Amino acid sequence: MIIAIVGFIFACIPGALIVGWLLLPIAFILGIVAVFLKGTKWQAITAIVVSVVGTIVGAIVFFAVVASSFNNAFSSGDTTVKDSSVSDEQATDEATSSEESATVGTRDNPAPIGTEIANDEWKVTINSVTTGAAAADAISANQFNEPADAGSEYIIVNYTVTYIGDDADGQIPAMVGVDYVTGGGATVGLGSKVVVAPESIDVLSTLYNGGTTTGNTAMQVPSPVDGVIVVRPGMVAGKVFVAVQ
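The structure corresponding to this sequence follows.
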């Protein structure tokens, strides 16, 4: 019974869970043995009950610790949307009256090109989206690029990524996602067709706090271009939709 109580206490302490997990099974086994001994019934039953309850509590504490650790490791904070042409005071006024207008950054109400999309680690801005003949000409300038498939065309997205996190080892811009969503709701990523964009953005070189990189990415999308760009400033960050024009 004493072992069960001590194990229960340790099972409730995140940093000492392992001790509780070692003691509780021992208490459970000893409790079962004690049930068959004379004069130890209530202690034996108490030991069994406490060990079972302690195991359940320990499991809850364990999963809570894991969930918290996962959240701290991968969460990048809330994603914010800020039009670069709007002052902080105007942005505050707009936020105050947000209930009267649609949320900016959704598929139905995409943010305009030039909008700053940020969280605790990354700041992303879509600078321009080139479509039509201009995009086709830029892509064809590279002799290794193939023409777009029938019923499709290329678009070129120019964007800037800035690392604003505090990781001393830095992060690579590949953590940021930039895709295209058609008018019908299908996501088109870089894997739709391998193509090299002119002045491609470097997403593999590590950026440290304040570091920034700008460049292009190209993708093949269905014609006509009636969709939006979707930006994800981090692996598990919220998505923000940006207008193509």
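The mean pLDDT is 83.
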